[in-house]
Design goal:
Layout: H1 2-9, H2 15-37, H3 39-46, H4 59-68, H5 77-126, H6 130-135, H7 138-180, H8 182-188, H9 191-229, H10 231-236, H11 240-265, H12 268-292, H13 299-340, H14 345-348, E1 361-371, E2 374-385, E3 389-394, H15 400-405, E4 415-420, E5 423-424, H16 430-434, E6 437-441, H17 451-455, H18 465-474, H19 478-482, H20 501-514, E7 519-523, H21 531-544, E8 549-553, E9 565-570, E10 573-578, H22 580-586, H23 589-605
Parallel strand pairs: 3-8, 3-9, 6-7, 7-8
Antiparallel strand pairs: 1-2, 1-4, 4-5, 9-10
Helix pairs in contact: 2-5, 2-7, 3-5, 3-13, 5-7, 5-13, 7-8, 7-9, 7-13, 9-11, 9-12, 9-13, 12-13, 18-20, 20-21, 22-23
């Protein structure tokens, strides 16, 4: 029930659609039921009975008299039958108009609910901490946002359309049946508790099974996403057969689970139909005794009663299957709410202070960070003053990227503190802190959008074309942009595949420079560039570093010769610090690393 209540939150903005759907379906069900009761005067006239309209059914008798009384001509049975037929056709046509209108509202209701649910999960997902993304496979995330919301739609469809329609038809028909014969109607209702009781064990198994299936489907999506994004690696290492095995294995597990679930789910329909048929036959037998015994029910009423009872089987069958279908949707909804229940960065943020910029310095004070029990940074302390360039060097896994991730609080220190102008960054509101930072990483991310939209990412209306061009010129990107087919309006393709690595990197630098952040983080920003591209990027950086505090994770030591301070890291600790000349003169780790690179460059030249 808790899941239903949570889903109903998304229903509130569309209440009018639900109310309209209910009203139209109830009206259609009432017209349908009354139209079938007109079979009584039709059959009575056909059988030549003296009273076409029964006289002992209260409001139903009055309704029949008003609807077809004028058409019943004494001693002219064919004329009477023709009139009754025309009224039945008119009522059935009107019923279907209301049914269509209700269906339209129900269809729009479920689609808009799905849209809102999908948007809510996507918006929440974007605001989760980076740690959640590192723990969750990309394929699982895609499956939750796209597939699980689509599966959740099924329960909305059942509640908003078919269940309301079937329930309306069921209740109206039972009401009419009770008017015709209370005793037989009570016998007919015996089937409902029997069906509900028999289906409960099935429903419990289905919920558990469908939750496992959603996870299996996410695994299929994960394998597919990994292969598509890494297809070059797959081909170069001839891994097609290996990936075939992974995909077929995941797909096979899903299919096996789905077959098992369907085997259980398909039991509900036959159980309902067999029980319903047994009850219908029993009612026919009891009703025949009343007719033949002359105890108040005539033949026309019994036949109409049986027709209505048989018409109950279909909505009753669909209503009994609704919980079965709902289990798959509820399993998907549980996965969605697993995401929505994760606290966002802003919910976890305890910062209360605003900052406008970096006025003096950024201080790392005995900072440590660990993933669980595994330390990544240990007792890191240094001061980066305004306008300085801090270079971080060391082997892969030394902790360089983790250190710079602490600055915009992508992750939080597990010990020590980071002070911005004397204020612990954890006391600063997260949006305010991140507005101070521009980042260019070695893995350049560009979107399938125009050049302009990529440079002015997330704030297209904020910047003029002149400002975008100025940032591009500063990053030495304007010339190649102008040479593109549509200049700044050229769509780059997925991940910017229309550009070279150096061009993509310069666009990423232009994006960071457009925001003019006081703190700039370059995470091996020139490592993927050829010599000419690196020269162009380095020229742009040299012009724009003045007055900006910059952290550079360097792969090529030649790019950090003029850094204010170089921190040499090893196993999460700063083992050396100083300028380029000071560290070379010291003859330590930095000097050895520098000598190795120079030797490699000479060998490469040779």
């Amino acid at each position: 029930m808790r899941l239903y209540r949570r889903l109903l939150v998304f229903l509130r903005p569309h209440t009018w659609r639900l109310v309209g759907n209910i009203l139209f379906n109830v009206t259609a069900a009432a017209l349908d039921g009354i139209a079938f009761t007109l079979l009584i005067p039709f059959l009575n006239t056909l059988f030549g009975m003296p009273n076409a309209i029964a006289q002992d059914m209260g409001w139903l008798t009055v309704a029949q008299d008003r609807l077809i009384g004028a058409f019943l001509v004494p001693d002219q049975p064919l004329a009477s039958l023709r009139g009754v037929i025309l009224v039945i056709i008119a009522m059935v046509a009107l019923k279907n108009v209301f049914l269509w209108a209700g269906g339209q509202l129900g269809a729009s209701l479920q689609e808009y609910l799905t849209r809102d649910l999908r948007a809510a999960v996507f918006a929440h997902m974007q605001r989760l901490p980076l740690g959640w993304f590192s723990r969750t496979k990309t394929g699982q995330i895609i499956a939750r946002i796209l597939t699980d919301t689509e599966q959740t739609k099924a329960i909305l469809a059942e509640v908003a359309t078919r269940t309301i329609q079937n329930a309306a038809q069921l209740l109206v028909t039972i009401w009419i049946l009770y008017t015709m014969s209370p005793r037989l109607t009570l016998y007919a209702l015996v089937v409902a508790p029997l069906i509900i009781g028999l289906l409960q064990p099935i429903l419990r198994k289905l919920r558990k099974g469908h939750r496992r299936l959603r996870a299996e489907y996410g695994e299929i999506t994960s394998v597919l996403q990994e292969v598509v994004s890494g297809i070059r690696l797959v081909k170069s290492f001839r891994g097609e057969a290996y990936e075939d095995g992974r995909f077929i294995g995941a797909s096979g597990r899903y299919s096996k689970g789905m077959t098992r679930i369907q085997r259980i789910a398909l039991l509900s329909g036959p159980l309902t139909e067999v029980l319903g048929t047994v009850v219908a036959v029993a009612i026919l037998w009891l009703g025949a005794q009343e007719v033949l015994g002359g105890r108040g029910m005539d033949g026309g009423t019994l036949i109409t009663f049986m027709v209505l009872v048989m018409r109950l089987l279909q909505p009753l069958k669909q209503l009994s299957q609704a919980p079965t279908i709902a289990q798959q949707s509820l399993a998907a909804a549980e996965r969605l709410f697993d995401v929505l229940d994760q606290p966002t960065e802003l919910q976890a943020d305890r910062g209360t202070r605003d900052v406008r910029g970096l006025e003096r310095e950024l201080v790392f004070d005995a900072v440590g960070f660990a993933y669980g029990d595994e330390p990544v940074l240990r007792d890191v302390s240094f001061t980066a003053r305004k306008g300085e360039v801090i270079a971080l060097v060391g082997a892969s896994g030394a902790g360089k990227s983790t250190l710079v991730d602490l600055i915009p609080r992508f992750i939080e220190p597990t010990s020590g503190r980071i002070l911005l102008d004397g204020v612990d960054t954890r006391e600063i509101k997260l949006p305010a802190l991140r507005s101070l930072t521009g980042i260019v990483s070695q893995d350049t991310v560009l979107f399938n959008d125009t050049v302009r939209a990529n440079i002015a990412y997330g704030a297209g209306e904020k910047y003029t074309q002149a400002q975008v061009e100025a940032a591009a010129r500063a990053a030495n990107a304007h010339e190649f942009i102008a040479a593109l087919p549509e200049g700044y309006d050229t769509v780059l393709g997925e991940r910017g595949t229309r550009l070279s690595g150096g061009q993509r990197q310069r666009l990423a630098i232009a994006r960071a420079l457009l925001t003019d952040p006081p703190i700039l983080i370059l995470d091996e920003a020139t490592s993927a560039l050829d010599t000419e591209s690196e020269r162009l990027v380095q020229e742009a950086l040299d012009r724009l570093l003045a007055g900006r505090t910059t952290f550079v994770i360097a792969h090529r030591l030649s790019t950090i010769v003029h850094a204010t301070q170089i921190l040499v890291m090893d196993a999460g600790q700063v083992v050396e610090r100083g300028t380029h000349d000071e560290l070379l003169a010291r003859g330590g780790a930095y000097a050895r690393l520098h000598a190795l690179q120079q030797r490699g460059e000479r060998n490469g030249d040779g």
